[in-house]
Design a protein that fits this description.
mainly alpha; 163 residues; AhpD-like; globular; 9 helices
């Protein structure tokens, strides 16, 4: 039986997925702190681009909750549907400009740091397209979505519960 199936009688109720609201009740300080960090990080960047990054990082991390949440946010901001459809294959899609490619590559490199060191040329590549302030904001935005992915994905927040 599947360890993630709440209907499985062999799984302790403590192993069942958490709802987002339950997480907020159990750790009430976490959500406002992460949202504050998100606001600070996002302040120096184009919001549509940030949402595209959040979608891609959430895909990499296998977080369905965050992927669904940020796809919806990106749609509301007017991010091109084709870009949202093909962000998982952005290198091959032919839809992304050089700046977006550099941003997505940097997001993937930072997200993969637990498995591989940051490539030596990662900062050089992103610096060709962003200011130092934008790079710092982007790094904070990437770190924040990675934190959310570990919470929402790790606790298996249901997609239907996305706020």
């Amino acid at each position: 039986m599947n360890a993630h199936n709440p209907a499985d009688p062999h799984v302790s109720p403590d192993a069942a997925p958490f709802a987002f609201a339950e997480f907020q009740q159990l750790v009430p300080e976490a959500t406002p702190a992460l949202r504050a960090l998100s606001r600070a990080a996002n302040a120096g960047l184009d919001h549509g681009t940030v949402e595209l990054v959040k979608v891609r990082v959430s895909q990499i991390n296998g977080c369905a909750f965050c992927t669904a949440l940020h796809l919806e946010a990106a749609r509301k901001l007017g991010v091109a549907p084709a870009k949202l459809d093909l962000v998982a294959v952005w290198r091959e899609a032919g839809l992304f400009d050089a700046r977006e490619k550099a941003i997505l590559a940097f997001a993937e490199a930072l997200t993969a740091m637990g498995r591989a060191p940051l490539p030596d040329d990662a900062l050089v590549a992103i610096a060709a397209h962003l200011s130092r302030a934008e790079i710092a904001h982007l790094a904070a935005a990437i770190a924040t979505i990675n934190a959310w992915n570990r919470i929402a994905g790790g606790l298996r927040f249901p997609v239907t519960a996305a706020p």
